[in-house]
Amino acid sequence: MEVLDRPIEDKSVHDRLDDLARHYRGGSERTVRIINLMGGQMDGLLDRLPSAMRDNLERGTEHALHFALDAAGKSRSVIGESPSWFTTAASATLGAAGGFGGIPGTLAELPLTTTVLLHGIQGAAIDHGFDPTEDGIRFECIQTFSSSGPLEPDSGRDMAFLSIRTAVTGTALQALIARVAPRLGAVLGQKLAAQMAPILGAAAGAAINVANASHYRRIAHVHFGLRRLAIDADRNHAEMVSELRKRLRH
Fold first, then answer.
1. Does residue 2 sit within a domain?
2. What is the pTM assigned to this prediction?
3. How many domains does the chain have?
């Protein structure tokens, strides 16, 4: 007969929740530094995009998500698990390259950047003992993109994502990608606009890519950390989300 581990003690639960709350808050300071680095020129980035690009951005992002879902898994089988600094470095390199390449470069970069972001999200799932090739985890990794981007803080939306528990069906993943694409498209659109702005250019593309990579991996870390905590403590996942909310209100 299999012997199950005993649930962790209350003190360990509280300590891990405190740690997740600190991790969750950690992104706001980095976002402020990015904005300050760019001289406060982040306002109205999407308005700087050519109208044709704005119209096609959502469709391009949806294609990029499909590409990333396949490519991120294949890249992991080739290069193995990569540390967070690798995701950061790859994001910065792609952002800078897209900025130097003008409009064609920014569009060509979109699926590659999305793949790097998803690779980092999957890495957070693995860190907490989950298999990113399992259907439910693949679903939740994509779902991470429904959180707010780092240049548009919205803790209410992020916390709503952490609470979502959706049944995975045959068509659910395709429907999720279609639902997430507009949100991610708005986030990536800010970066594309910054890359094409004469004053911002390649440096902004690199900086915003790094902020995006850090943000989505952070959100994924909190999400999968809560899920692992619920398992280890033998408690309801919704209860863990509620406890985290209480800590973030203080």
1. no
2. 0.81
3. 1
